[in-house]
Specification:
Elements lengths: L8 H4 L3 H9 L5 H31 L13 H22 L18 H14 L1 H16 L8 H20 L1 H17 L1 H16 L1
Helix pairs in contact: 2-5, 2-7, 3-5, 3-6, 3-7, 4-6, 4-9, 7-8
Length: about 210
């Protein structure tokens, strides 16, 4: 197992991802929908890491990613490029903070069926730019260090655990959650830009 990629799991669920998990625990079928959401997150993260590892394995056959400690290696250059993209995304989120709104589909999760919750969980991981960059980073990390896919299992497990935190909290503190979650959801709806920037900053710090 490789614990170096474990912290990257934090950024996988920061943003609309964790907002969706929070909305689902206040939905009509909270437990069933949340479990389906977690299955979708698990499947998409596993597939995404496998694809990313495969892409960099193919790339490594033609372009060496170099020594991880070398500042001029291709793998390091890729990481620097990812940091630059994240910085640009963070600046864009801040510039548009006055008009920033959460995705409209978040409101539909209150009535989400397990099938829809599964689809949302999978699509967010597979299509969210920040998650794609995280999984590419994990793939580059595995290839650069010549590690097997099994080394990414702690990363996948940590991602799912973070996604499960709202559901676990609901199961443990149902009465308090029923009172607190609507306020938390409202705050995240009005401060979605803060959540996005936090995800970018955390990811940048973890890469560096």
């Amino acid at each position: 197992m490789d614990l170096q990629v474990l912290p990257l799991a934090v950024t996988m669920m920061v943003g609309p991802q964790i907002m969706s998990a929070i909305v689902l625990v206040t939905a009509r079928h909270a437990v069933r929908a949340s479990l389906a959401f977690l299955v979708g997150v698990t499947a998409a993260t596993t597939v995404g890491v496998c694809v990313s590892r495969g892409v960099f394995a193919l790339l490594g056959n033609h372009v060496s990613l170099g020594d991880p400690s070398s500042k001029g290696s291709a793998g390091t250059i890729i990481q620097i490029a990812l940091v630059a993209l994240l910085l640009a995304a963070a600046v864009k989120s801040y510039a548009k903070r006055e008009t920033a709104k959460p995705p409209k589909w978040l409101g539909t999760l209150m009535e989400a069926s397990p099938r829809k919750a599964f689809t949302i969980g999978a699509l967010m991981i597979m299509l969210m730019p920040s998650d794609i960059m995280v999984m590419l980073t994990v793939g580059a990390h595995l290839e650069q260090r010549d590690l097997e896919l099994a080394a990414a299992l702690p990363f996948v497990a940590a991602t799912v655990l973070i996604a499960a935190l709202p559901l676990l909290t609901l199961l443990l503190f149902r009465k308090h959650m029923n009172r607190a979650m609507p306020s938390v959801r409202e705050w995240m709806n009005t401060h979605s830009w803060v959540v996005n920037i936090a995800a970018y900053v955390i990811f940048i710090l973890l890469i560096l």
